[in-house]
Write a structure and sequence with these properties.
about 290 residues; six-stranded mixed sheet; alpha/beta
């Protein structure tokens, strides 16, 4: 089986690989000996405080929130409350075909395999968005399905993600669609209100127009996240100080050979999805064809 197919078969895996224990300890402060105690503490907190009513309360579900908040139950609980509130307020985003968003095309991408330091390298390239063919809501929905699939995978819960926002080609025709509501949704999906461990956010290939673009977003970015944001302009050597070139595509001075587009990711995950994923996505509100 080609590497890329092996990688996508793993994309739907929920196997807790013992080989990732050291990564879990370093990235998530996870200790196998105290893991269950933390899960029970979080579960009790959810029941006692009653601030949210998650659709699931099993160990695996609670674990994804603990992992991205360094196994501090109080912080994991706050994140869960925000995530459930996001889902409640934005339930209409889930009302779509989970694997029918191929028209978003090259707005998102990623490199494989994951970096042990930076996790999954995710590319957001809003300048490649065809505003006449693709509604902004579908651009957001595509990020949503990618996030929801990612958090099902224990490997990504542990390794986390690093996001590169490439503003090459961004213009007024793009920014005029970025309402405060849309900007808030995008920031939420970058990990602010979502159980994803985010190592860093890197902004590249921008000029004076960044001020217009960034003004819409900055009000939704919490103070704690600013320390993980890095602005590189067109200086790829600056980006390489944070991400090894082996994990980057050639256009960013990297050597990674496997750069996955939105279209390919949706097609392959749809191909390898299992019954658990289908039911999970349907329970979230997505439509998944048999």
């Amino acid at each position: 089986m080609p590497f890329i197919d092996i990688a996508f078969a793993a994309e739907v895996s929920r196997f807790e690989d013992p080989e990732f224990e050291e990564h879990a300890r370093r990235n998530c402060n996870e200790d196998p000996h105290t893991r269950q105690h933390a899960i029970e503490e979080l579960r009790n907190m959810v029941y006692e405080r009653g601030e949210c009513h998650p659709r699931r309360m099993d160990d695996a579900y609670l674990l994804r929130f603990l992992r991205c908040r360094r196994f501090i139950p109080a912080l994991a609980h706050k994140l869960m409350v925000r995530y459930e509130e996001f889902r409640r307020k934005n339930s209409y985003l889930y009302d779509c075909s989970a694997f029918g968003l191929q028209k978003v095309k090259h707005v998102y991408g990623g490199t494989l395999p994951e970096s042990p330091i930076n996790g999954r390298i995710t590319l957001m390239r809003f300048g490649k968005w065809d505003t006449e063919a693709v509604p902004i809501m579908d651009v957001v929905r595509c990020a949503l399905i990618m996030d929801e699939v990612a958090v099902m995978q224990p490997k990504l819960q542990i390794l986390g993600v690093t996001i590169i926002v490439d503003l090459e080609g961004l213009s007024v025709r793009h920014v005029r669609h970025l309402t405060p509501t849309i900007a808030g949704q995008i920031v939420s999906l970058m990990g602010v209100n979502f159980p994803l461990l985010m190592h860093g956010l890197h902004i590249i290939n921008y000029n004076w127009f960044l001020n217009t673009f960034f003004y819409v977003f900055k009000q939704f970015i919490p103070s704690a996240a600013w320390g993980r944001m890095h602005f590189h302009g067109y200086d790829m050597s600056s980006l390489h100080k944070h991400i090894d070139p082996s994990a980057l595509p050639p256009e960013y001075g990297g050597t990674c050979r496997h750069v996955i587009s939105t279209e390919e990711w949706l097609r392959k995950v749809n191909m390898y999805k299992d019954d658990f994923m289908v039911q999970e996505l349907r329970d979230l509100g997505f439509t998944v064809e048999d």
